[in-house]
Predict the structure.
Amino acid sequence: MSTTTSTAEQLRRRREASYRLPPLDCGHRDPQDCLTSCGQPDNEGTGPSEVLLELAEQIEPGDVVALWASAKSLFFAHDFPAYASLEWRQLGPDDPRRLAAALDAAEKWRKYGTDVTQWLEEASSPKPPIWTGRTQAELDEAAKPKPSHVLRATPGWPPIALPGQPGRYLTYMQEMAA
């Protein structure tokens, strides 16, 4: 079953992500705001989208293929730091380990959703040694059946339907209290 995200939710996530970035020269953090709000090009006479386009034109296709192939092999070898860790942030932007970590984080988010960090911390936390657990005698004692609960009517509460006896109810009577 596929889940779709509303446009408003996508915009909210984009806004949250943009606030983690350093501001642009005009003060905006999101290039989309820069184009829609102030409409001003940056100091060099080109807007943010033009700068990104120029940067993309400088990248050779072979470089992208090599980076992707290296990142893919590192991803499968699990030879990369955790995404957004200090070690990951110290990697250069063209380091394939950086891309491998981002791919790993994206794949985990795709599989496990937004609670991935909590789930992964619980799954990867060290478990106590088996000998610190309960003994077989303790487990046997816990597995023994307990006596059934005795139903009692309480003043001020409605009658209680008796299990297994349709149409019969347990009610509180004033005479029982005396």
In short: The radius of gyration is 31 Å.
